[in-house]
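Saturday, quiet lab. Running sequence design on the structure tokens for the scaffold JK sent over.
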């Protein structure tokens, strides 16, 4: 009887560890509305993923006008590894892994130094809009497959 109980507990522990391992890592991730740490318990569904907030107020603000926060939400989808880069945010073409830039803490690759230079010259908030705005996001990023 004790052996079956311990075996059952071992299975539960492995299952719990698997669930925890599948969770999104939020260390260093900021709310898409305010510049505070995002909380796993405060989220909303967005583009086949989830975006995270610091509080219920920000969640509510986002839900009312998601288009206002699209660039930050798209950036967070990449930062939390729910989406991955597939092309240059400007051309949509293949990227050169040597031509990268950190945009709001997220590494982004470009097809050439010309595209990289456009972003490099811009102010920080404009960089986010240039790289993670809906038009660029659609060209450059896709939902990460569940296989990888």
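Result came back. Writing it out in full:
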């Amino acid at each position: 009887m004790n052996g079956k109980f311990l075996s059952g507990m071992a299975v539960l522990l492995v299952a719990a560890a698997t669930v925890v391992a599948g969770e999104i890592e939020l260390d260093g991730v900021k709310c898409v509305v305010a510049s505070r740490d995002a909380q796993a318990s405060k989220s909303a569904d967005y583009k086949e993923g989830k975006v995270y907030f610091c509080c219920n107020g920000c969640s509510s603000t986002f839900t009312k006008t998601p288009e206002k926060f699209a660039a930050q939400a798209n950036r967070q989808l990449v930062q939390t590894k729910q989406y991955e880069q597939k092309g240059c945010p400007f051309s949509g073409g293949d990227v050169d892994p040597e031509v990268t830039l950190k945009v709001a803490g997220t590494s982004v690759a470009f097809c050439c130094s010309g595209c990289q230079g456009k972003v490099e010259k811009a102010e920080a908030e404009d960089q986010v809009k240039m790289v993670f705005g809906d038009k660029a996001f659609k060209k450059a990023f896709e939902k990460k497959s569940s296989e990888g």
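Notes for JK: Confidence is low (pLDDT under 50) at residues 5-21. Residues 110 and 116 are 6 Å apart (CA to CA). Ask whether to fix the surface positions before the next round.
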